[in-house]
Structures are given as C-alpha cells and as structure tokens.
Hints:
The chain is mostly beta strands and 211 residues long. Helices cover 2% and strands 64% of the residues. The protein has one helix at residues 66-70, and strands spanning 2-5, 12-15, 20-25, 30-34, 43-48, 51-56, 73-78, 83-88, 91-94, 98-99, 102-109, 112-128, 131-145, 150-165, 170-183, 188-192, 196-201, 206-209. The chain has an 18-stranded mixed sheet that branches. The radius of gyration is 18 Å and the shape is globular. It folds into two domains: 1-94, Pectate Lyase C-like; 97-211, 3 Solenoid (Pectate Lyase C-like). Strand 5 (43-48) and strand 6 form a beta hairpin.
Amino acid sequence: MTEVRELSKFHSVDLRSLGRVVLASGPEQKVEVEAEEDLQSRVRTEVQGGVLMIGLRWWLGALLRVPELADVVVRVTVPELREIRLSGAGQVRSEGPLRVGDLDLRLSGAGRLLLELTAERVLARLSGAGAVDLSGTAGELEIRLSGAGAVQAERLETRRVRIRASGAGECRVQASETLEAEVSGAGSVRYRGNPRIDSRITGVGRLAPID
Length: 211
C-alpha cells in the first residue's frame, strides 16, 4: 500500500530506523510511504526545523514484524537537499542524480548510503560500521571517518579531496587536482587519478593508488 504524506517544507532528511529511503531531485516536494496497510500508522514522518524525520513507532509485538518493517520504503522528492542523516541499520539511496550545492552526510551505526550526485561540495562524516557509496561529480569532497566505516567514492569524479581517517576505516576516492589525507590507526586511503598529494600517516595507516 502506498500513502502520500502531506508535510511542511523541508531541506534535510533524517532516517532513524529500519527501512529504506529513496531520494530524488524534483521541482515539487513529495513524500510517499510504501508499507503494509496495518503498518502505515507505525511509520512516522514529521518535519522539525526543516528536517524530515523518518522513524518507526514501536509497539508490543514489533519484533515479530521486523521483516515487514525492514521492507518499508519512503520515497522522497525534494527541490533542495542540504543534509542526510542516517543512524541505525537503514538504507538511503538516490534514484537518479541528486542535484545539490553543499551536501552534508552524517552516518552512524551500520546503515548504508548509496548516492549519485551532481554537487559542488560534499562533507561525509561517518562513525561506527556504516558504508557510503558515492558516484557522479563534485567539486570538493571532505571525509571525516572514525571507527570501521567505509567510503567508496572512486566513482565520484572530484577535483579536490580532503580526508581525515582514524580507526580501521577505509576510503576509496578519485581526485584530479589535490588530495589531502591524514590517516591514523589502521585506516586505509586508496585513490584514483593523479592529484597533488599532501599526506600525514601515523600508526599502520596506508595511502596508495588504486591499481
């Protein structure tokens, strides 16, 4: 069952539960929830301070419906997107390229972001064991990675990349002009392209080109 939600204007999305969010750029804002009919009332969509908050209203017996809850899909079309936040084990992906200016990505927990972008600047902040997969084009990409997360951005054509990685995380990027990397712990940075490199590696961290 698909239900259209009428909501006030928003520019950011925050998923704090199971389920999937599918994002698209478009001239008109639209939010649709795909879920079994008796679960529609359990899917929370509300706007706070310009942020679309997506979550689940838990109830006695919810654990028996985890497979169905994990299959919930929220489709979001938005004219302007500034920030995506993901906590927990959900997934956010794009349908077609997202046309953005500056985009802030915040990922904690074990969730996953899969985004195709046409962006001026992207800031990705990861903690925990989540994963970010980026493709498309961007002028600048900044990554702040802690924990055991992974950023797969070698398909994101970027001019300038800046990375600060600690813990055991992994980054794969593409840079045509400059790459600044600060790696500590057991982190790994692999890169594609022939950028000018400024690096500081401590511990058993690694910086190397992609073969």
